[in-house]
Amino acid sequence: MHAHHNEFIRYLHGREDDRIIVTFGEIDVREHIVRKSQEECITVAELCEATAESFVKYIASLRETYDISVLCVVPPGDADNPKWFKGEYLRRKHATELLNARYRYWCDKLSVPFIDIYDKLVDKHGHRRSDLVIDMTHLGSITHTIDGVIE
């Protein structure tokens, strides 16, 4: 976020009365956490901690002016196509859940609202709910109808 600060501030301009929700995408988890962990021998836990701390501190710095909340990272797709999906499914799922846990911690510590709907997006086995999936990567627009998503 820091690298895109000026661009983000331009986007926020005039939205002082809006509720803004930001998230770190599932694709970002696989590309910037799982892949980096594999290539640079840094643990997923270290990368999740550094990412969550930096991201939430940045968002907290904007909360005096803007009503910004952090949305949990959505569950990963279960496809194992190495061209598009860096790291096997269970590794990506673990990284996503760990990052969400660290977001929850840092949001609580810095008084940033954390919207955690992860449990509403997974089935009883912890896998992405098939009725919400539009393709191998994306959730469909039906997710906005889940009870309790927007309070």
Detailed description of the structure:
- The protein is mainly alpha-helical and 151 residues long.
- The chain has a domain at 18-119.
- Strand 2 (67-71), helix 4 and strand 3 (114-115) form a beta-alpha-beta unit.
- Helix 2 crosses helix 4 (89-110) and helix 3 (44-62) runs parallel beside helix 4.
- Strands 1-2-3 form a 3-stranded parallel beta sheet.
- 45% of the residues lie in helices and 7% in strands.
- The chain is globular and about 40 Å long.
- It is built from 5 helices and 3 strands; from the N terminus they run H-E-H-H-E-H-E-H.
Largest sheet: 3 strands, parallel
User: Could you give the order of strands across the largest sheet?
Assistant: 1-2-3
Shape type: globular
- Strand fraction: 5-15%
Poorly predicted runs: none
Structural class: mainly alpha
**First CA to last CA: what distance?**
26 Å
Count of discrete alpha- or pi-helical segments spanning 4 or more residues = 5
Order of helices and strands: HEHHEHEH
- Rg measurement, Å: 16 Å
- How many strand elements? 3
Average pLDDT: 84
* Helicity, as a percent range: 40-55%
Write a brief caption for the model:
It is built from 5 helices and 3 strands. The chain is mainly alpha-helical and 151 residues long. The longest helix has 22 residues, at 89-110.
